[in-house]
Amino acid sequence: MFRRKLSALDYHNPAGFSCRDETEFRNFIVWLEDQKIRHYKIEDRGNLRNIHSDDWPKSFEKYMKDVNCPFKIQERQETVDWLLGLAVRLEYGDNADKYKDSTPDGAKNTENTAKNAEPLINLDVNNPDFKAGVMALANLLQIQRHDDYLVMLKAIRILVQERLTQEAIAKASQSKE
Fold it and tell me: What is the pLDDT of residues 10-34, one digit of tens each?
């Protein structure tokens, strides 16, 4: 549930984190305060760092009030999500120059997919070699000429795709044309 935010914050085990495990939860809160949020001065973090203390829930509740978390201590998932959001905002604020030109991983994949989906976009249709190649293919495949070489190339692609399906190849190998 929190994997993306934990990964963004370089948490050591983003996939295996569970806020239901008490010890793991307490250690996570200490890590988050020590490494990312840093609301308290180092010397004031002692009560929060003492994760085996019976008073830890009180220290955590005080911490929640100090960072202005709108959730109660019993609402663990909401609290963790809110604290992670705060940590991500603070991390971005500390390193804004590093992140300002970044793009999401999904956006990079989308751009690459778009480029791969339409490979004809980057062709130089005015190149004489390109025109000669398209004309040679069109003549070989008996495709009608067109003023736009890119349109002819698309027609060639469609014809090749239709004739190179498994069914078309099987049918062609059976006939003796």
Answer: 888 888 888 889 999 999 999 999 9
Question: For the chain, what is the largest distance between any 2 Cα atoms, rounded to a whole number of angstroms?
Answer: 89
DSSP 93-128: HHTHHHHTT---HHHHHHHHHHHHH-TTTT--TT-H
If we measure between CA atoms, which residue out of 77, 103, 106, 86 comes closest to residue 18?
Answer: 77
pLDDT band at 1 (very low <50, low <70, confident <90, very high): confident
Has this prediction a pTM greater than 0.85?
Answer: no
User: Which residue from 49, 56, 60 is spatially nearest to 27, judged by alpha carbons?
Assistant: 49
Both tokens assigned to 85:
């959001």
Number of structural domains the chain divides into: 2
- Same domain, residue pair 9 and 72: yes
Same-domain pairing of 6 and 65? yes
**What are the structure tokens assigned to 23, written together?**
């010890």
Residue 110 in any domain: the answer is no
Could you tell me if residue 86 is inside a domain?
yes
